[in-house]
Amino acid sequence: MDDTSARLPDAAPFGRRTQQRATVLAALIRAADFTSAQNLHQRLAEAGERVGLSTVYRTLTALAAAGRADVVREPGGERLFRYRPSQEHRHYLLCRICGLGTPVDAEAVEAWAARTAAASGYADVQHTVELTGTCPDCASGDHSS
């Protein structure tokens, strides 16, 4: 791969900037939708990139911890990652059949989480909300789009 890191958005602080991490980040951005670490690793291998699966997992985990990747769990429990271009926290409605992730307005969830944290006296409260369903295309059987 050419020098990808020079053209990538600043995803710091997600650890040391290495060519392998830049390659994983570029692949995640190209994926555009939620993908598993194994799927991303397979795509990289098919493209001739030499990046170990453990490096893919570590990089995706570091991106998520830095707020630069969203993480959801698919019904089988596997973590799926999607590049987050801004620090803004998002929630998604995830199709259980095809895996399509659609951002949703989550103001009510965020307000509830803030009220719950304030009322409990807890500090540094984090939350995970998983919304799953069947997207319109899968519900109608139309997978052509």
Question: Would you kindly provide a brief summary of this structure?
Answer:
The chain has 145 residues and is α+β, with helices and mostly antiparallel strands.
Report helical residue fraction.
25-40%
Mean pLDDT score, rounded? 84
Largest sheet: 3 strands, antiparallel
The global form is: flat
- Classify the beta-strand content into a percent band: 15-25%
| Neighbour order of strands in the largest sheet | 1-3-2
Radius of gyration: 17 Å
Name the helix and strand elements from N-terminus to C-terminus, one letter apiece: HEHHEEEEHEH
From the helix content, strand content and strand pairing, which structural class follows? alpha+beta
List the total number of helices. Answer: 5
Q: Termini distance?
A: 31 Å
Number of extended strands: 6
Flag low-confidence runs: 1-8
What can you tell me about this protein's structure?
The protein is 38% helix and 17% strand. It is of the alpha+beta class and 145 residues long. Strands 1-3-2 form a three-stranded antiparallel β-sheet. Strands 5-4-6 form a three-stranded mixed β-sheet, with no helix packed on it. The longest helix is centred in the last third of the chain and has 14 residues, at 107-120. The two termini are 31 Å apart. Mean pLDDT is 84; it is low at 1-8.
